[in-house]
Write a structure and sequence with these properties.
Blueprint: E1 3-6, E2 9-12, H1 22-26, E3 35-39, H2 45-56, H3 62-66, H4 69-72, H5 79-86, E4 93-96, E5 113-118, H6 121-134, H7 144-153, H8 161-168, E6 177-181, H9 182-187, H10 189-200, H11 206-215, H12 218-223, H13 259-273
Helix pairs in contact: 2-11
Bound molecules: adenosine-3'-5'-diphosphate.
Family: Belongs to the sulfotransferase 1 family.
Protein name: Sulfotransferase
EC number: 2.8.2.-
């Protein structure tokens, strides 16, 4: 089914470190000065990467216009990403979709700053349905109904969203752990970016912040070939039928769920997330 099952979690084989490297990879060393972006796929991971890159470059778009996004903040679980990261000197931007139990253990003894990005799982589900339908590297769903079931069962890339949240929320309250939501980023990008800057101990001048906001906007990212996943052309995405930069809004699930699906999802959400504080879910 094009998945590589790793400790019970289905991962897109193309994303994941091969068997040969596994032991070395498990000893990957996170450094205190690193910043790690953690998100379940389709939560807005790449948007947050773009913002962090622009914080680093003080709003200057040169970097985001000249280097592909997956090289600027590589996925530690991907072979190409790991290979870039392992030899890189100085502070690194690192991305991961992994559930907490699979991340290399050195993370927990480092002061690496972590940003966990949450999004309404209904929107993640819809975004994932369209994205995996055009991707050439995972099992394609036949219909929204089918994908809905897969998502609930955790039979989608990186497993169960519900488990992903539960796992990473064990870090909540730690000084080096910031939780953000796609919804707050969308609603008030400026103050959310200021919150990120504060967490990272960075300060942007007003014109630098303005440039950041412009260059990380949906429209500009959609046009930036270093960020819109049009580069590995035809290899990973079937772009005749959609694009990575799809809609970029909150609440699109309302256009795709049936009333019965909405009701069923509410019920499952209440059951599975009863123990997680409501304040983490600004859409509920
Ligand atoms: P949609 O499919 O709902 O449009 P990820 O990076 O984790 O794969 O998440 C992809 C989702 O983030 C997609 O959602 C994509 O459109 C959205 N996204 C990417 N860049 C964005 C931006 N600058 N502003 C808002 N949404 C963005």
């Amino acid at each position: 089914d094009k998945y590589l099952w790793f400790k019970g979690i289905p991962l897109p084989a193309v994303d994941f470190i091969p068997e040969l490297l596994r032991e070395e990879w498990e000893n990957f060393v996170f450094k205190d000065e690193d910043v790690l972006i953690v998100a379940f796929p389709k939560s807005g991971t790449n948007w947050l990467i773009e913002i962090l890159c622009l914080i680093r470059s003080k709003g200057d778009p040169k970097w985001i216009q000249s280097v592909p996004i997956w090289e600027r903040s590589p996925w530690v679980e991907a072979e190409y990403g790991y290979n870039i990261l392992k030899d890189k000197e100085g502070p690194r931007l690192i991305t991961t979709h992994l559930p907490i139990q699979l991340i290399p253990k050195s993370l927990f003894s480092s002061k690496t700053k972590l940003i966990y990005l949450i999004r309404n799982p209904r929107d993640i589900l819809v975004s994932g349905y369209f994205f995996w339908s055009i991707s050439k590297f995972v099992k394609k769903p036949e219909s929204m109904e089918e994908y809905f079931e897969w998502f609930i069962q955790g039979n989608v890339p990186y497993g169960s969203w519900f488990d992903h949240i539960h796992g990473w929320m064990s870090m909540k309250g730690k000084e080096n752990f910031l939780i953000l939501s796609y919804e707050e980023l969308k609603r008030d990008t400026r103050s959310t970016v200021e919150k990120i800057c504060q967490f990272l101990g960075k300060k942007l001048e007003p014109e630098e912040l303005n440039s950041l906001l412009k260059n990380s906007s949906f429209q500009v990212m959609k046009e930036n070939k270093m960020s819109n996943y049009s580069l590995p052309h035809g290899q990973y995405l079937d772009e005749k039928n959609g694009s990575f930069m799809r809609k970029g809004i909150s609440g699109d699930w309302k256009n795709h769920f049936t009333a019965a699906q909405a009701e069923a999802f509410d019920k499952i959400f209440q059951e599975k997330m009863a123990d997680v504080p409501r304040e983490l879910f600004p859409w509920e």
